[in-house]
C-alpha cells in the first residue's frame, strides 16, 4: 500500500482515534489541534465531564487495540433510574442481563487516545488552529495561538475531525453544490455536580444513569470513577421554566426544591455551579458531500453533529473510524473511491441517528415518567426475550448492536405501528404478559 502523508484537523475523540487507524496502516499522520495539550494544561481542572460509551464505540476502540484499557476506567450503567418529584424511584433495564452502557471521562478517554496515537508514530501539534484549506491541492492553513504565526501544510489528504464548527467544512461550504444545514434546538444544557460521600462512595446508585424526567425538560446524572456524578440539566432557553427565568440564587433554589427535591441535598455547590458553569447550546448539523476527490474528507461531528439524547454522538463518530478502516482494507490505494464509498455508506446512517436522537429526547424527558410507556417497554422486552430473532427493541438495536442506524430506524417505525395496536387492546395493563398479547404481536409481524 502506498504511504500517504495525511493531515488531520482536530485531536478530539474522533481525530485521535482515526489517526491510530491510519498510522496502523503505515501512513504518515500529523494532527493539528486548536487547543493546548490537555494532558499538560489543566484545562478541565475540578470538572469531570463524562460520556456514555456503547457497543459501536467499543468496537472501534477494540479495532485500535485500546478497549481493555478503557474498560478499566469505565463504569457500567445497566439501567435508567427515574426520580419522580415525590422521590419515588423506578428502574428500567437498558438491555438484557450483562448489557450496559458505560460512563467514561471525556478528558481521560481523549488523553488515552492521544497517547496511543503518539505511540503509533502520529505527530500531534497543539495550539494550531486550522483557518482554511485549499481543497484541490490538499493544503491546510494554520495559525499558532501563541506566536500568531501562520503556516501552510501540504499533504496528500486532509481529514476534517475538527468538530461541529469545523473550519475544514467551512471552506467546503463555500463550494458549489455543497449542502449544509445547522439547527439549534430550543433547549440548552448546564453541567452540575453531585460530589462523592466522605468515604469516596457514590451518593446515588452507582451502576445506573439517573433521570429526573419533567416533561419539557430533565436532569440526568452519570457516575464518575471518583465517586461523584456529573449532572446535566437540559432546559429550554426561553419560556416559563427556562434559563431566561432563573436569574437569582433564590430562583435556583426555589426551582430545584420544587422540581428536583431529592437531588438538592446531594448538590452542596448547586448555586455556585449553576452560575459558574456555562449555559451551552445544542446543535444538529447535516451536510453533504463530506469528501472532495481523494483530497479532503470530513469525519465525526464535523460532518454529523447530533443532539446527545441517545448517547450516540461519539459512538457514531467512532463507528466512522470502524467503517473508514473497512474501506481502507477494501479499496487500498484508490482513495477517491474509498472516500466516496465512505460518505455514501455513512450519510444515511448518521441522518438516521440524528432523527433518533431527537426522538429519544421526548422519550427521556417525558415518556420515562409515563406508566403506559414503561408497560409498552416491558411487553416488548418480554416478547424479545422469547423471540430474539423476531424482535430487538429499538434501543437495543441502536445501543447494543452494529445494525446500521438507518435499518434500526426503519425497523423501529415498523415496531411502533405494531405496538400502537397492542397498546390499544382492552385491559392491556392486566394481560400484558398473556398468550393473547403474544399471539397478537406474532400476527402483526
Ligand atoms: C452535553 C453533551 C453530551 C454528550 N454525551 C454523549 C454521550 O453520552 N455519548 C456519545 O456518544 N456522545 C455524546 N456527545 C457527543 C460527543 O461529545 C461528540 O459527538 C464527540 O465529541 C465528537 O467528537 P469529534 O472528535 O468529532 O469532535 P470534538 O470532540 O468536538 O473534537 C473536535 C476537536 O477539534 C478541535 N478543533 C476545533 N476547531 C479546530 C480548528 N479550526 N483547528 C484545529 N482544531 C480544531 C477541537 O479543539 C477538538 O479537540 C455529547 C455531546 C454533548 C454536547
Write the layout of secondary structure elements.
Layout: E1 5-9, H1 13-24, E2 28-32, E3 50-53, H2 55-63, H3 67-71, E4 75-77, E5 79-83, E6 89-93, E7 101-105, H4 106-119, E8 123-125, E9 128-134, E10 139-144, E11 150-154, E12 157-160, H5 167-173, E13 179-194, E14 208-213, E15 218-223, E16 229-236, H6 249-259, H7 270-276, E17 280-288, E18 291-292, E19 296-298, H8 301-304, H9 313-331, H10 335-365, H11 371-386, H12 394-399, H13 405-423, H14 428-431, H15 435-444
Parallel strand pairs: 1-2, 1-12, 2-8, 5-14, 12-19
Antiparallel strand pairs: 3-7, 4-7, 5-6, 9-10, 10-11, 13-16, 13-17, 14-15, 15-16, 18-19
Helix pairs in contact: 1-4, 1-9, 2-9, 9-10, 10-13
The structure holds flavin-adenine dinucleotide.
Flavin-adenine dinucleotide (FAD) binds at residues 9-15, 32-35, 51-52, 129-130, 161-163, 167, 189, 232, 300-301, 308, 311-315, 317.
- CATH topology call of the largest domain: FAD/NAD(P)-binding domain
Rough shape? globular
Tell me the domain tally: 3
* Total count of helical runs of at least 4 residues: 15
Q: Which parts are unreliable, with pLDDT below 50 for 5 consecutive residues or more? A: none
Helix content: 25-40%
Radius of gyration: 23 Å
Q: Which ligands does the model contain, each kind named once?
A: flavin-adenine dinucleotide
Question: What kind of sheet is the major sheet?
Answer: 7 strands, mixed
Amino acid at each position: 500500500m502506498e504511504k500517504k502523508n495525511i493531515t488531520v484537523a482536530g485531536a478530539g475523540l474522533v481525530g485521535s482515534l482515526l489517526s491510530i487507524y491510519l498510522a496502523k496502516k503505515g501512513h504518515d499522520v500529523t494532527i493539528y489541534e486548536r487547543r493546548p495539550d490537555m494532558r499538560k494544561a489543566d484545562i478541565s481542572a475540578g470538572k469531570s465531564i463524562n460520556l456514555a460509551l456503547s457497543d459501536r464505540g467499543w468496537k472501534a476502540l477494540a479495532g485500535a487495540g485500546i478497549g481493555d484499557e478503557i474498560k478499566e476506567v469505565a463504569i457500567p450503567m445497566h439501567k435508567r433510574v427515574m426520580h419522580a418529584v415525590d422521590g419515588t424511584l423506578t428502574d428500567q433495564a437498558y438491555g438484557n442481563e450483562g448489557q450496559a452502557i458505560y460512563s467514561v471521562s471525556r478528558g481521560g478517554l481523549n488523553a488515552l487516545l492521544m497517547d496511543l496515537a503518539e505511540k503509533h508514530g502520529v505527530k500531534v501539534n497543539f495550539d494550531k488552529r486550522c483557518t482554511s484549506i485549499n481543497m484541490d491541492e490538499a493544503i491546510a492553513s494554520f495559525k499558532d495561538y501563541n506566536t500568531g504565526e501562520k503556516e501552510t501544510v501540504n499533504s496528500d489528504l486532509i481529514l476534517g475531525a475538527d468538530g461541529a464548527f469545523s473550519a475544514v467544512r467551512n471552506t467546503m461550504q463555500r463550494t458549489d453544490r455543497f449542502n449544509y444545514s445547522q439547527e439549534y434546538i430550543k433547549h440548552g444544557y448546564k453541567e452540575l455536580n453531585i460530589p462523592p460521600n466522605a468515604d469516596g462512595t457514590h451518593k446515588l446508585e452507582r451502576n445506573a444513569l439517573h433521570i429526573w424526567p419533567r416533561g419539557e425538560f430533565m436532569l440526568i446524572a452519570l457516575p464518575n470513577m471518583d465517586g461523584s456524578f456529573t449532572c446535566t440539566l437540559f432546559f429550554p432557553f426561553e419560556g416559563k421554566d427556562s434559563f431566561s427565568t432563573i436569574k437569582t440564587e433564590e430562583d435556583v433554589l426555589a426551582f430545584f426544591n420544587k422540581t428536583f427535591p431529592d437531588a438538592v441535598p446531594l448538590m452542596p455547590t448547586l448555586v455556585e455551579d449553576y452560575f459558574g458553569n456555562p449555559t451551552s447550546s445544542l446543535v444538529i448539523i447535516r451536510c453533504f458531500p463530506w469528501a472532495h476527490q481523494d483530497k479532503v474528507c470530513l469525519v465525526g461531528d464535523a460532518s454529523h453533529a447530533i443532539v446527545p439524547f441517545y448517547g450516540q454522538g461519539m459512538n457514531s463518530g467512532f463507528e466512522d473510524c470502524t467503517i473508514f478502516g473497512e474501506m481502507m482494507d477494501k479499496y487500498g490505494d484508490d482513495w477517491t473511491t474509498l472516500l466516496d464509498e465512505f460518505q455514501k455508506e455513512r450519510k444515511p446512517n448518521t441522518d438516521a441517528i440524528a432523527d433518533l436522537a431527537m426522538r429519544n429526547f421526548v422519550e427521556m424527558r417525558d415518556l420515562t415518567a409515563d406508566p403506559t410507556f414503561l408497560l409498552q417497554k416491558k411487553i416488548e422486552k418480554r416478547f424479545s426475550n422469547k423471540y430474539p430473532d423476531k424482535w430487538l427493541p429499538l434501543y437495543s438495536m441502536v445501543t447494543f448492536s452494529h445494525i446500521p442506524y438507518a435499518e434500526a430506524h426503519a425497523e423501529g417505525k415498523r415496531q411502533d405501528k405494531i405496538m400502537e395496536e397492542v397498546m390499544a387492546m382492552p385491559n392491556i395493563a392486566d394481560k400484558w404478559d398473556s398468550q393473547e398479547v403474544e399471539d397478537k404481536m406474532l400476527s402483526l409481524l
